[in-house]
Amino acid sequence: MKTNAKIMGRMAELIGTDGPEDRQSLHPPAAWDLVAIGVSIVMAMRGVSANKLRALLTTLGIIIGVAAVIVAIGIGEGSKAAVAASLKSLGTNTLTVLPGQQKRGAISMGFGSKSTLKLEDAEAILKKCKDVLSVSPEVSQAAQVQALDKNDNVTINGVGVNYRTINNHVIEHGRFFTDQENTRRRRVVVLGATAASDLFGSMEPINKTLRIAGQSFQVIGVLKKKGATGPRNPDSGVYVPLMTAMKRLFGLEYVQDITCQAKSSSVMDDAQDEITSLLRQRHRLKTDTNDFILFNQSDLMQAQNEQQGTFTTLITCLAIVSLGVGGIGIMNIMLVSVTERTREIGVRKAIGARRRDVLAQFIVEALFLSSVGGILGIAAGYLGADLVSNVNGWSVNIATGTVLMAFGFSAVVGVFFGFYPALKASRLRPIEALRYE
Amino acid sequence: MNEDVIRVVGLGKTYESGSNKVVALQDVNLTVRRSDFVAIMGPSGSGKSTFMNVIGCLDVPTTGSYQLDGLEVESLNDDELAMLRCTKIGFVFQNFNLIARTSALANVEMPRFYNFRGLKGRVETALRRLDEVGLSERIHHTPNEMSGGQQQRVAIARALVNDPSLILADEPTGALDSRTSEEIMAIFQHLNDEGRTVVIVTHEPDVAAHCKRIVKFRDGRVVSDEPVANPIDAREVLAGDRHYK
């Protein structure tokens, strides 16, 4: 059949009196390849402006997807970083010794209710445990504080001189108290940033006098704001020397906790063992039960960090779902218009567009919509992240990788669903495309 | 310039769908000379649409040879066929097939973008063609803002913009009322008077009666090929039809 057709064709050529017109006349010059790309760009832009609603909906899908991913992952990363920062400021190598629980029959009075820790225990820990760098015994009780016209019931912390370094506190104004001030039970006080502004407002508190439980104390320092890291907010703390607190204010023989700083975070377990055996020996314990509790703060933070990880995973899942929804939105819009597009491709091919002209037009269109949507999505993502951090006070970290990933994914979705139906349509013969229902 | 715009020898077209073989055209021989005005008629399934697709280079024949303006079509690749359609054929469709939400001017201008010889002066030419079909007032209107007759005139202007050797119209009046059909036929007759070759596929005898020659198809073959003794002059009909106005 085929060869027959060929022979017939040749015969027809022989019959023809005029030779066939030059086939070469149908070939555009090489420079046309470049011009054709320009033509495709013009056609794509005309296509976009002729289908504004479709263009808007497509970009909207991408905008939502990109913005959602940026905000969600930004929140996740931000809170992760916040936890890491607070872990660092808390000191990863601190151990807290608390007295054991007091029990009356079956009723537990809670941690720290026993009076078993003595000042000498703290001194012994510092002296005998080789992996412990410094210690800060502490007491705290509520007392009435008067300053200017304020009169508040505030928790007073009696702390050792090493308290500041162990807890990574930074002095904002003035200074922290000295060992001498502690042993001489001087009435000096250091305020947390919030406590200072609560008591003195905008006034400079250094060298001002305030009354704690009726006794006058001189303010010698203000700590830099640190932010809450646990149940206690160090910024609203009122700190006095330990001995002053024990002897002058509260009349205590026992300390309420001892914060110990290990030499490094890698010897935490050793320090813990040393403190345990020392205290057991000092307290002459015979049963397995300890009359104190050793509390490792990095363990707590570890647990908090793991919880944070779950939160980040959850929020990332949400982001992926919203990207998917955006993608499906784009797909729907493109599939709905596929009939019209197919017919348009049929018309264009019938009136002389080559397949590559049609494909280039639709690639340019899809790329244009995706990148416009992607750029607007990034802008919306940054705005959204700003809003979240301003309204909720969450820290939001936007990594460049996240932005690129979100942009890349949306671009792929946009180009795929924008271009794939066009690719299929361009493969049809023009008459099939024209009759497409 | 070749005197024969269309020269078809022993043309056959068979469609295969699964095990079914449908013979749409067999052994068709036809020559259309320059400046001819041919109506191709026949009932549905007679093969006239297939024939139009083949001579419009939208479909390839199974057997036989087809020369368009002296060029052997069978040997051409897809890109060459696209350029052939672009420069040598002006299509007019039954349902107009304009690009939606795009102005009349942009629609008419479009084929010039695909013609590497036609990029220059495309707007001027498009405006001139729109003026020729009487739409110079509506160049910025989109298809949905125009009547069927106006849309078809835009489509004719588009078909003319690359100055083709052949105007190929598939049921151009099929979607129009009789008055508008007469107006469209007047345009085709005017174009033919200017020396353009026009081939119209139609099943309406009234439309065919405007042409110079009628070719009838039945069961994939040409069954008659006769000149029209006294073609109807659409312009006279329109001038005489006072009650339409």
How is this structure best described in words?
The complex is a heterodimer of chains A (437) and B (245). Helix content of chain A is 57%, strand content 16%. Chain A is an alpha+beta fold. Chain A folds into 2 domains: 42-83 and 304-434, no CATH class; 115-290, no CATH class. Chain A has a 6-stranded mixed barrel with strand order 4-5-10-7-9-8. A two-stranded antiparallel ribbon of chain A has the order 2-3. The longest helix of chain A is centred in the C-terminal third of the chain and has 40 residues, at 297-336. In chain B, a hairpin with a 2-residue loop joins strand 9 and strand 10. Chain B has a single domain (34-56, 76-244), classed as P-loop containing nucleotide triphosphate hydrolases (Rossmann fold), CATH 3.40.50.300. In chain B, the strands form 2 sheets. Chain B has a 6-stranded mixed sheet, with helices on both faces. Chain B has a 4-stranded antiparallel sheet with strand order 2-1-4-5, with helices on one face. The chains are: A alpha+beta (437), B alpha/beta (245). Chains A and B meet through helix 1, helix 2, helix 11, helix 12 and helix 14 of A and strand 1, strand 4, strand 5, helix 2 and helix 3 of B.
